[in-house]
Amino acid sequence: MSPYAAPLRDIRFVLDTLLEHRSLALPQYQDLSPDVIDAVLEEAGRVAGDVWAPLNQDGDRHGCRLEGGEVLTPPGFAEAYRAFVEGGWNGIGSDPEHGGQGLPEVVASAVQEMWQGANMALALCPLLTAGAVEALAQHGDEALKARYLKKLVSGEWTGTMNLTEPQAGSDLSVVRTRAVPDGAHYRLHGQKIFITWGEHDCAENIVHLVLARLPDAAEGNQGISLFLVPKRLVDAQGRLGERNDVNCVSLEHKLGIHGSPTCMLGFGERDGAIGYLVGEPGRGLAHMFTMMNAARHKVGIQGIGVAERAYQQALAYARERVQGRVPKSRGGGSATLIEHYDVRRMLLSMRARLEALRALALLSASEMDIARHAESTEARERAQQRVDLYTPIVKAFSTDQAVDIASLAVQVHGGMGYIEETGVAQHLRDARIAPIYEGTNGIQALDLVTRKLQRDRGAALNSVLDEVAACAASLADDPELAAWGRVLRDGVDDTRRALEVVLERAADAEKGHDALQALATPMLDLVGHVLCAWQMGRAALRARAALQDGHEDTAFYRAKLASAEFVLCHWLPRGRAQLAAIEAAPALFDAPL
Amino acid sequence: MSPYAAPLRDIRFVLDTLLEHRSLALPQYQDLSPDVIDAVLEEAGRVAGDVWAPLNQDGDRHGCRLEGGEVLTPPGFAEAYRAFVEGGWNGIGSDPEHGGQGLPEVVASAVQEMWQGANMALALCPLLTAGAVEALAQHGDEALKARYLKKLVSGEWTGTMNLTEPQAGSDLSVVRTRAVPDGAHYRLHGQKIFITWGEHDCAENIVHLVLARLPDAAEGNQGISLFLVPKRLVDAQGRLGERNDVNCVSLEHKLGIHGSPTCMLGFGERDGAIGYLVGEPGRGLAHMFTMMNAARHKVGIQGIGVAERAYQQALAYARERVQGRVPKSRGGGSATLIEHYDVRRMLLSMRARLEALRALALLSASEMDIARHAESTEARERAQQRVDLYTPIVKAFSTDQAVDIASLAVQVHGGMGYIEETGVAQHLRDARIAPIYEGTNGIQALDLVTRKLQRDRGAALNSVLDEVAACAASLADDPELAAWGRVLRDGVDDTRRALEVVLERAADAEKGHDALQALATPMLDLVGHVLCAWQMGRAALRARAALQDGHEDTAFYRAKLASAEFVLCHWLPRGRAQLAAIEAAPALFDAPL
């Protein structure tokens, strides 16, 4: 069993130094101080490390069981979840009006990484609940909110997203589940698959948010509505009543996240599952996207969390495992793995990328705070543009990198990494879902090049690139960092050129869609590298300043400079190489397969 | 369960068109014709696809069990292995003097890919046997050979490599197993871990090749000798006698290759396991390297095999799964996955890389044939240099790519890819061992930069690069392929520059070893990309010629040109980006971790 320690020092660096607590400057948060946030982070780290993390490997080994319609989660999960709810952690980012603690999203995101790093399978449960809270708060009527929201915010009840059906995966327009009006509510009939935490024993009720069609609904997206279907019915006083007609039919046997029950749910196998319309009829997909964007951001953070844990385990093993010898120039004695430079390269590659991805994800979270709470419309809109641009990148780029980082953690362990008892292979198995769910990474890339680049003709990206270029110029002003400034500048130029290609291709009415699909993933990868390099460029400037100011934590800032050098000089070039793929003729993909 | 069809068409293209059957030009093979080889490939493909492949997923699900000291392999494995032995497949590459069929290594390698693609877990068994055959044939005395070799070549008995101990993984110098002289033989005492097919029920005897120390042995590598330890003793007439004192203590619970029993073996728990010295005392590691180099080549091919199967499964799923719609410009109807250009990009990326890796591995195999059988010493030596240079690249680069390709195959499946029943996740789990065993890929990279580049000051690589440059020039002569010629030429230039850096760093007596370790993996990745691009450049020239000559198989050659374009224009740039990492200061890795 590997320990997990929340990366508090690096999170603080991002919040304090890189983001300068910009969320706290919003009027909404005038009563919050950095000290309070610090205390929150520390306590979350303690619960994550002491309570959640020790259950992670056992959860993988035991998995979940379906017995007589009930799902039994792994030993300790129910208690650990209860501790989380009782600690008030579920609602830390939610509106105080609904019982939440109303902390900034940037803090909630930092804490989110800790749950995901400690126990990804268990952390999926509140991740889904948060989506249900968001959809209900934004689109539910007052009666529904009064009955369900508070318990969801507290985490006493949990939430799910019921989208996928056997024929409807990435394409939800072909959802078939039916909802028939029946007095004040509806009766739902249908089957949903891949429902994360769709049934479990950790809470007394589960609130399913379900996409379904009304009887007279149009075909396609326009015919889909959103319904709330509780596992147990709730009366007007909020008391739990009998079980609704929704049941777990089977559990999936998955590559990873064994502690997270992935259910096939049957709705209406008897007389129809009672459900309540959320928002407007026919607007179900739009309403669901409210929660999906937030969930996509969180899945990106999940990738960072699980990869951070894999990194910590590899680092600990490399420090302890004696194998081989150091070169004669360093004494020739027996060496721990970490003394070998190829192993150091692997570890630095993991750490540096994690720091960069974390900085980018928290930057995006801070833009969410501004988009919600800034006083001027202009500031809110500008921030929302940034969030829209960053979200597919945070989701897809972080999770692609997470799989690679977890795989490197296995590699550092050598043969021991392949043995399940070691526990590091679990992180690779767990991480592998993140590029798939909440919209595959291919879907994210298409979202980037169409909705986020094509639609505004690159305005949002160009405005970010102006800031990246300014960072490159600042680096160039420092003789020690000038070379890094040049490579970052080159990255900006490549991205601008790639953006031109995107817009040219998009202009082709005939072939535009195919052409954009053909370059979408390389484009997301390029932009991801450049945005991460930007964050590490900024980090390098701050680290240099801190060292010049004689800051006492020299080890931290020196390590930060090493991370920045890795990202800018070793890693960024791999992303820039995508320009060739972006420019290459998309006609290639017409070729026979 | 996914079917597997050996990629016969592409293998034939490599043997016939790219390699022009150069092995058959050797006097050794004067009686062999391309037709015979064709028949061998076809029949092997049939056995692999019809007999071995259907057991693959069940083998994963059942795994192996240890009961009362006996290891039970998955249902059907023993029968499938017997069919393989009875078909004469085990010895197809072995010397006819020992009962082998004496086919060229390039043919044996092509067939090897088929077993690995059909059932990697089962194919590991003969892979290890082949190593034992090689070590015994080269280093064993006549009595040992007479007693053991024929049955190993036929596959009636299987072989193992007993290297690793708990404290001795990548560094074998600290092996502790003891061998005490006892009359004409030795008594071995010790414990070996990670012994692939160390105990099983598929053959009546197992021949362990074991590294151990004589009582008076020096410390370190020089004190290690190689011993043959049979599971059951064999008398002078070759009859099986009683069980030797070697036992399976436990089986590892692994991420993948569940059908392959990975054993902890206890030697001499009673009165000592009877063993026989192979070769000279103190030369055990050197002798073992005889089999390790061959095994490294085969593990590279194993990566190609398992990745090919993952690709086939993804391709089949993409053709069949209906999801989303084609753009309006193409009619707007409902689409199969393969009609989406992002999916086409993934599939082409898998196929193109596989074709390139296969061509490189079979090129290396053909050099093995020349190194063994060419008439002139000069030709043999030159070919051996090539084999030495290619082996770490074939092993490490193919297996790194294999993990990525298998992971992409999961991605193509979307959510279904994460469900174990689908079977595609197994390929990722299986493939993940290949970068670890037979020398981690980090060890391969270090082997490349030290023994294969530093030692001859880049002579072998430069001579290959001359050929790559000539290929680039030929491409440049064809107006249609000129752009590809330029990028290949750039790849050559980058590699020459990287080689200069390697040699400069190696010259630093103080820091040279660390500096080489720091750039070894990026260097291997760069060279791997360039060699693969070379093969696809050659393939493109042949494909163009075939199309110009009006060859009837136009679909194949057009697809080959598409693969070449992907490798040269989309993929090679990623490898070239490693030059930046190679040139960057190795001092980075001195930074605190």
UniProtKB/TrEMBL annotation, chains A, B:
EC number annotated for this UniProt entry: 1.3.99.41
Protein family per UniProt: Belongs to the acyl-CoA dehydrogenase family.
Reaction catalysed by this enzyme: 3-(methylsulfanyl)propanoyl-CoA + oxidized [electron-transfer flavoprotein] + H(+) = 3-(methylsulfanyl)acryloyl-CoA + reduced [electron-transfer flavoprotein]
InterPro entries: Acyl-CoA_dh-like_C_dom, Acyl-CoA_Oxase/DH_mid-dom, Acyl-CoA_Oxase/DH_mid-dom_sf, AcylCo_DH-like_C, AcylCo_DH/oxidase_C, AcylCoA_DH/ox_N, AcylCoA_DH/ox_N_sf, AcylCoA_DH/oxidase_NM_dom_sf
Protein name: 3-methylmercaptopropionyl-CoA dehydrogenase
Domain Acetyl-CoA dehydrogenase-like C-terminal: 465-585
Enzyme class: oxidoreductase
Stretches assigned to the Acyl-CoA oxidase/dehydrogenase middle domain: 161-267
Keyword annotations of the record: FAD, Flavoprotein, Oxidoreductase
Residue span(s) of domain Acyl-CoA dehydrogenase/oxidase C-terminal: 282-449
TM segment ranges: none
Domain Acyl-CoA dehydrogenase/oxidase N-terminal: 78-156
Cofactor(s) needed: FAD
Pfam families: Acyl-CoA_dh_1, Acyl-CoA_dh_C, Acyl-CoA_dh_M, Acyl-CoA_dh_N
Keyword Nucleotide-binding: no
Lineage of origin: Bacteria, Pseudomonadati, Pseudomonadota, Gammaproteobacteria, Oceanospirillales
Free-text function comment from the UniProt entry: Involved in the assimilation of dimethylsulphoniopropionate (DMSP), an important compound in the fixation of carbon in marine phytoplankton, by mediating the conversion of 3-(methylthio)propanoyl-CoA (MMPA-CoA) to 3-(methylthio)acryloyl-CoA (MTA-CoA).
A molecular function GO annotation: flavin adenine dinucleotide binding
